[in-house]
């Protein structure tokens, strides 16, 4: 089956070359070279699927030959062979791109096993029956993946809104793809040739944010020894992306509102208005309406920004997108990490579908990146999917409460946990109040009070 797989053995020991050639010739198309320069000639002329390279080629250093091979064909899997099993050598050769390391004398069966395994990996045709073959041709960068109803509706909206100058407010939990959607709006607008300038309102200290946005004149404040353009001016003609807008301080919100009304900015230390032609797109994972109620966000600004609202649902509410996303990220990272992953085993998708993805698409992307990185062959298998369940459950609980309670977070979360524990303990103890109180470590009087508080009926 693997006769199309071409193997190169590089060793100055001609007996070993001959022996290995005989051993492998039944299954592979085997070539040999006794020194580095012959080997490099062969690598230049042929595409090898696997190379066995001796560390010590007479006077030549195998690591130098490895380097030269990788310059010609960066992706060819190279297995180093040596009589000296020191960890430095292992490290050096792995750094240079060797995929395996075997210590002489080599066990013939082991060589066949490695060759079969690695050659299969490198052989793009090899893809087990229970796996999905990846289509690299259809991959393109920076596209918004998803065919769920929610995402299809959003795409229709994006197409309609991209060419207008309306402000857009993108909402959704962290990691749902808000920034990506904003980039896509810019890319599909008439402004695409002009700058796309993102600014994260939560990441920049309050006192800097104003000068970052509006710029300043020389002498506007101590340390302002020359004038500086703000993001509004830099984004002129293009799109300004105000990320985490919910974190913008109130006094800056007032200034932003003025820009939206006047279409002009005033640098710090200047009293001249300067017209700017900027499309504003903002994003937040906070509930702005709640912030308005608490007096932390201006209602008038909210209505100015929220001309068009795109709300990205969490990934757990559109699980039908998980498969497409997993495929997309596998190809993306396979290319980026110089791997040649050809397929994903079906069982992997079942694992991905079972999980709730509190960190949304970002978390899925990280899990897939890790899988691509750690897989030892050219397919992604269930064991390559490292979802840290304990950590993720913690994150999940935290995210759950953060998303649910926008005010009095601690009190409300603790109350919810308390009510749940009481219900659980009641059930476990057949609704016996004494036993339940005991297991909870509280008195019956306290338990009764809590049952009343949480309106728990027995
Ligand atoms: N539908 C999608 N298709 C392809 N990639 C996606 C999609 N959604 C999200 N991503 C990727 O997931 C990662 C997180 O997305 P993004 O940064 O846009 O999320 P966000 O909602 O802005 O997060 P935060 O609120 O934490 O800033 C990015 O690498 C992004 O490219």
Automatic annotation (TrEMBL):
Q: Which PROSITE patterns match?
A: RESPONSE_REGULATORY, SIGMA54_INTERACT_1, SIGMA54_INTERACT_2, SIGMA54_INTERACT_3, SIGMA54_INTERACT_4
Mind listing the GO biological process terms from this record? Answer: phosphorelay signal transduction system; regulation of DNA-templated transcription
Sorted keywords for this record are:
ATP-binding, DNA-binding, Nucleotide-binding, Phosphoprotein, Transcription, Transcription regulation
Enumerate the InterPro entries for this protein.
Answer: AAA+_ATPase, AAA_lid_NorR, CheY-like_superfamily, Homeodomain-like_sf, HTH_Fis, P-loop_NTPase, Sig_transdc_resp-reg_receiver, Sigma_54_int
SUPFAM superfamilies in the record: CheY-like, Homeodomain-like, P-loop containing nucleoside triphosphate hydrolases
- Per UniProt, residues of the Response regulatory domain are 6-119
CDD domains in alphabetical order: AAA, REC
Q: Which residues carry this modification: 4-aspartylphosphate?
A: 54
Q: One Pfam family, short name please?
A: HTH_8
GO molecular function terms noted in the UniProt entry: ATP binding; sequence-specific DNA binding
Residue ranges of the Sigma-54 factor interaction domain? 144-373
Check the record and name the PANTHER family matching this protein: TRANSCRIPTIONAL REGULATORY PROTEIN
Q: What protein is this chain from?
A: Two-component, sigma54 specific, transcriptional regulator
Please tell me the species this chain comes from.
Deferribacter desulfuricans (strain DSM 14783 / JCM 11476 / NBRC 101012 / SSM1)
Taxonomic lineage from the root: Bacteria, Pseudomonadati, Deferribacterota, Deferribacteres, Deferribacterales
